[in-house]
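The records we work with from here on pair a chain with its fold. Here is one such record, which you should read through line by line:
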Amino acid sequence: MSQRIGTDVEVLSDPGDEPGLVDEWRALAEAAGNAFVTPEWYAAYAAHYGDDAPPFVIRVRDADGTLAGLLPLCRSGRTVRFAGANVGDRFGPVAAPGREAEVARAAGGALGREALVLHNVDAGASWVAALGEGLRGRVAATRLRGGVLPYVPLTGHTWDSFLGARSRNFRSQVRRKERALVDGHGAVFRATSAPDEVAADVAAFFALHAARWDGREGGSTITSPTVHAFHADFAAAALARGWLRMSFLEIPAEIPGDAAARGAVAALYGWRVGGRYAYFQAGFDPEWAAASVGLVLMAHTVREAIAEGADEYDLL
């Protein structure tokens, strides 16, 4: 059931109950270039984590009915967090440009007495303080842990100008290693492009990701079956929206009489949402590490991002 807070702010346990909201929400998330706050990310979270921490949104509309923005959240006991922050990198209000603080302030007033925990947010953003104002001073303590989400600006670049801005050694390495793989081993690049490819390609990506991290100190954070199922769902939804950028570097397999058979030696999982081409995770076959297959595939995706006209390559 929905709980009405005021004339323009409402808490919705199922955003699908409000006609048109999901489409409006998606448009704002795409404009921000942020896959982590799309309704598709929220839906995948709800399907695989929602039983333990039910999701909900706080929706804010203007007096004329225009969507100002919303916060996609989840509740676990007396704690509220961004929905999907356990499997994502960048969270905040989904809002019309420049209205993030206004939306956060209004949404804060709709929250109860729960503890609000903000994972993977820009702690210096104005909306964080505004959210605290909306909570009416109910902020007992603040603890920050810093991190950096690097990105590479691409606007105005061609592939040649992009390489020209890098070091001479980097340019040489990228060109030489790709040529060695393509000319010497018949390597090809392939992207997931059809719905019936998604399940197998997601499985192949996770297998290469696990191989990359196997035996390394700390290991990978995306190894659980629930995480795999989450991404299988999100990748399928992202492909349907034209966002998915799952790429593979494939080498002809040594199968007698089947020269066309190929095996993936590197995989990169990302997406293009709005102007942002985002690299989420990657993996590679350790037996091909000396050939720098991961570097070659990543360079290929940067080249693809430039060709698409993306504004930036986000390394998350």
Summary: The first helix runs from residue 21 to 32. DSSP finds nine helices and 13 strands in the chain.
